[in-house]
Structures are given as C-alpha cells and as structure tokens.
C-alpha cells in the first residue's frame, strides 16, 4: 500500500476536526473526570491521528477512530490518577468528578444525544450567561475563539479572556460538570437555544474563508434543534428556534449565483426555495405563537416566515415586518436587532429615516467592528444617490469583512457606486 501523503492526512484530520469534534468530545466526556481532561484527550487524539494515519492510512470512519483513541487516553489518565491517589492517600484531597461519567446516569436523564447532553452540561447556571454560551461553542461545537468573538461582536483577546475565566471559575469553585436532571433543563434552556442559534448563524455565513456557508455547522445546529424539539415538545421557544432555522435554511440554494456571487434576498429566485421546509417552519411558528407570549426566537421566526411567504421582495408585508421588529426590540433590546429593523423602516418610511437610525447606532460601542453596520449604511446611501459617502461606507465594511463572498460583493458595490451611470 502506498502511504498517504502528508497533505492528504493533514486535510483528513482537518476535515474530521470540523465534522467530528462535537461527537468525539461528547463521547469522551462520558468517561472523563472533567471537561478539561476530555478536551485534552481529544486534542491528543487528533495529534496522534496525524502520525498514525500516515502509517496505516485514513480510516473509513475517522470519527470512530478518534473517539476510540480519545476515550482510551481518558481511561489511561483516570487510571494514572487513581494509582497516584492510592499511593498518596494523605497528600491528595479527593476531588468530586466534574462530569458524572457513569453511562447509566447519562442514559437515564432523558437527553437523547451525547452532544446535546454536553451542551446542557456546559450551560451551567453558576457561570455568567455569555460565559456559558462562549464556553459551549468553544468546547462542544468546536468553534474557534475568533469565530465566537465575531458572533458576540467582541475582540478575539476579549473572548479568549472570557473563556479562560470561565474555565478557571469551574476549576476554582469545583463546579460539578454533571448532566442536569429533567427538572433543571428549563433553567438552562435559553442558553442552550442561544448556543444552537449562534452555531447556525456561524455556519450560515462563515465569518472568514473562501466559502459562504459551512454546511457542517448548519447541519449540526439543525440536528440539535430537532433533538431539543423531541426532548421538550411543549416549549414554544424551541419550536420558534427550529422554525427560524428551517425558514432561513430554505433559501440555502439561492444565496449565491452559479459563479459564486452573493445574492441578496431581493435577487434570489424564490421558485427554488424549499417549500416543504417553509411549510414546516410556518406550522412551527403558528404553534409557537399560540403557545403563549412569544420570545425572541419565535418573533425572529415570524419575521423569517413573512419573508418566506412573500411572492416577491417588493410584495413583502413590510409594515407587518416593522411591527414584528418593534415587538422583538422590546423584549430583546439588541443593537443588531435595531440595525436589522432599519430595513423595513426604509421600505415603509424611506431610506432617509432609516439612515438617521443607523447613524445613531454608529455610536453604540457594541457594534464596533460589526461589518453589517457600515454595509447597511452604505446601501441606504446608495439608494439616496450619495455615491461618495456610500463608497466610504462600503470600504469600511470591506475592511471588516473576512469572508471572500462578502468581500467580492462589497468590492462590486464600490465599483457600481464609482460609476453609477454605467
């Protein structure tokens, strides 16, 4: 057998990291004493794969190979620790296990999937909400610190510090990393929904790189949302989140042209949208709205449903969209929501009023570095025929964009504004 090339193995390991990290870590956590140990063993397994796969070839099931390797490393580490404790009983203070690792305990808590168990486990109420979400995205979902920082619209050093502080708090306070009981799940639900939503949005538009969509993250988020729906079928916000993901993903085939060019909502061929997914999403939205006072995911799903059901961009019910954004902003006063609200404001009241709102948002430090702020402002300026100002705003957005498809789109807009008569 001809041994595989170094590049082939490196690519296979990188692909397995993108696709299998969550599965491998969750399975390893079943036998590990704590999250840090599980993460360390999984990282070691990936390093081992780089050498082993050069000798024996890339396995048919890389995830199974990595899981077996990581679990063996965890068991070996636990045995070494147990041996040390037995030899030094008076010098070592017993420490409670961080994850309740017996398989029976994991099997009987009602959570159907290792990954979902670990998401609920990491969303520990003793941690601040942002720390819960960031730590879960980093450990369970395998996102990089850079990707998480972009999702939270903060700098990479700030996000790295948050994750580090969260880990230190877990260690110092000896917070037990155990799978929560059924009655504890509702208190962790909002953080879990936030994790799944941010995981999806990171896959829906990759923060950087040559591709617009990371299908592995999109599919992982959809899987988790469906499992949540099966686990807690009476929770309206779970229905809202699943609806939002289905309705957004229904447009996946039309977001880029055959040449890779980014297509805005108004340019997309609606006949190619996934009508089955839209119908399922709309049903879930209606169920969620009837379940009680809608939360932020249900209202976002209702917004997505209006877009999905509109015959064309021009025929969208912009007044109803604006009313939904107003309701969303009342319960979730996020600057990103306020920025997105500028689109229906422009359609209902004109781009000048929308521009004034966006200019006010420019003073909100929470949007520093957020590429869609200058991009939205640039589009409004373009619609008003203020070409030079639009170019400056597009250039600002371009300086903050790292995804190749978005950069190409912004570059094209700059060229259009430089020669608007063409």
What can you tell me about this protein's structure?
With 422 residues, the chain is mainly alpha-helical. The protein folds into 4 domains: 6-97, Rna Polymerase Sigma Factor, Chain: A (Orthogonal Bundle); 109-229, no CATH class; 233-316, no CATH class; 345-422, Serine Threonine Protein Phosphatase 5, Tetratricopeptide repeat (Alpha Horseshoe), CATH 1.25.40. Helices cover 68% and strands 1% of the residues. A two-stranded parallel ribbon has the order 1-2. It starts with 5 loop residues before the first helix and ends with a helix.
Element layout with pairings:
Elements: H1 6-29, H2 35-56, H3 62-87, H4 103-107, H5 114-122, H6 129-139, H7 145-152, H8 156-173, H9 185-204, E1 208-209, H10 215-231, H11 236-249, H12 275-290, H13 296-309, H14 318-331, H15 335-349, H16 351-361, H17 372-383, H18 387-400, E2 402-403, H19 404-418
Parallel strand pairs: 1-2
Helix pairs in contact: 1-2, 1-3, 1-5, 2-3, 6-8, 6-9, 7-8, 9-10, 9-11, 10-11, 11-12, 11-13, 12-13, 13-14, 14-15, 15-16, 15-17, 16-17, 17-18, 18-19
Strand neighbour order, sheet with most strands: 1-2
Rg result? 24 Å
- Topology as a string of helices (H) and strands (E): HHHHHHHHHEHHHHHHHHHEH
Helical stretch count? 19
Structural class: mainly alpha
Range of helix content = 55-70%
Compute the number of structural domains: 4
Approximate strand percentage: under 5%
Distance between the termini: 60 Å
Q: What characteristic shape results from the CA principal axes?
A: globular
Number of strands: 2
Quaternary organisation of the protein chains: single chain
Give the overall pLDDT as a whole number: 87
Unreliable sequence segments: 90-108
Q: Largest sheet, described in full?
A: 2 strands, parallel
